[in-house]
UniProtKB/TrEMBL annotation:
Gene3D superfamilies: Winged helix-like DNA-binding domain superfamily/Winged helix DNA-binding domain. GO terms for molecular function: DNA binding; DNA-binding transcription factor activity. The keyword DNA-binding applies. Keywords: DNA-binding, Transcription, Transcription regulation. It comes from Actinacidiphila oryziradicis. InterPro entries: Bact_HTH_transcr_reg, Tscrpt_reg_HTH_GntR, WH-like_DNA-bd_sf, WH_DNA-bd_sf. PANTHER family: MANNOSYL-D-GLYCERATE TRANSPORT/METABOLISM SYSTEM REPRESSOR MNGR-RELATED. This is GntR family transcriptional regulator. Residues 8-76 form the HTH gntR-type domain.
Length: 287
């Protein structure tokens, strides 16, 4: 594991190590991972800590647990297809990672969709088909304690449980993104330089923004819906912001420096840098 992962709480360190073993092929699709009892012995920790680690792996789509059978490794590529990560985002990300030096600037509610879209590209790097030499990622997300207009209970706006559910999802998705990218350098030695910086800002973005290599921009609007979710064992209606299947608008500098696309890319970078360098705050992800 990376040196930074040592600052994560025990359950996250366990989840990171197991995820690395799954990605490396030690546990293959359809195979059972060790039992909770075996993991307790291996990591010399409590059963509750192991259960929390397995919860993280389930939320990130690595395993599925069944009563009396244990935890089975899932095909995340199949889940990627079934959950509908936008193909335009997936393809543009893959194209960007063909460069020797990759930069990716992100501003979104979470990094969940980006995690799915990155999966095929990370697999290509692990298989040696893509060989970037430098990856620099900047992530802007809303402050965890921000009072969001979404992730609210429809009939009781004072109920904080939906917001806490979102906060857990936000942290989990960012940790997964950060550790997946950093492992390319720290654990696998496939990319010489990888940096992932995460900052928070007291703004709720209602559209996703991705700037790829400073030359391409993808934007897509969240869709606010009312839907029923299970929160802490209770079924409730919430206002949610859906972003998994948004349609993206693509702008590029490819048509020339004076083109409308090139101007849009430049203005997005100016906007992003202005937030990053002023009101954004580094997020210490350790708990």
């Amino acid at each position: 594991m990376s040196s930074e992962s040592t600052f994560f709480p025990p359950y996250r360190r366990i989840a990171l190590e197991l995820r690395g073993e799954i990605e490396a092929g030690r546990y293959r699709v359809g195979q059972l991972i060790p039992t909770q009892q075996a993991l307790v012995r291996r990591f010399q920790t409590s059963r509750a800590t192991v259960q929390r680690a397995l919860d993280v792996l389930r939320q990130d789509g690595y395993i599925n647990s069944q009563q009396g059978r244990g935890s089975v490794v899932l095909d995340r590529n199949e889940m990627l297809r079934s959950q509908g990560a936008p193909p335009d985002l997936t393809s543009h990300v893959a194209r960007a990672f063909r460069a020797d030096r990759v930069t990716l600037d992100v501003f979104s509610l979470t990094t969940e969709t980006l995690n799915w879209a990155l999966t095929p590209t990370l697999n290509l790097i692990r298989d040696g088909e893509l060989c970037p030499q430098h990856i620099a990622v900047r992530v802007l997300v809303p402050s965890p304690d921000l009072e969001l207009p979404v992730h609210r209970r429809v009939d009781d706006a004072q109920d904080t449980r939906p917001l806490k559910r979102f906060q857990r999802l936000l942290r989990s998705s960012v940790v997964a993104l950060k550790s997946s990218l950093e492992s390319l350098s720290s654990d696998l030695g496939l990319v010489p330089e990888v940096s992932v910086e995460v900052r928070t800002v007291a703004i709720a973005p209602m559209q996703k923004l991705y700037v790829l290599n400073g030359t391409d921009v993808l934007t897509g609007f969240y869709r606010v819906v009312q839907r029923s979710v299970l929160v802490e064992g209770e079924r409730m209606d919430i206002f949610d912001a859906l972003g998994a299947k948004v349609s993206f608008f693509h702008h590029s500098t490819a048509d020339g420096d004076a083109s409308q696309g090139a101007q849009y890319v430049r203005q997005c970078l100016v906007f992003y840098d202005s937030l990053w360098s002023t009101v954004a705050t580094p997020w210490e992800l350790s708990e």
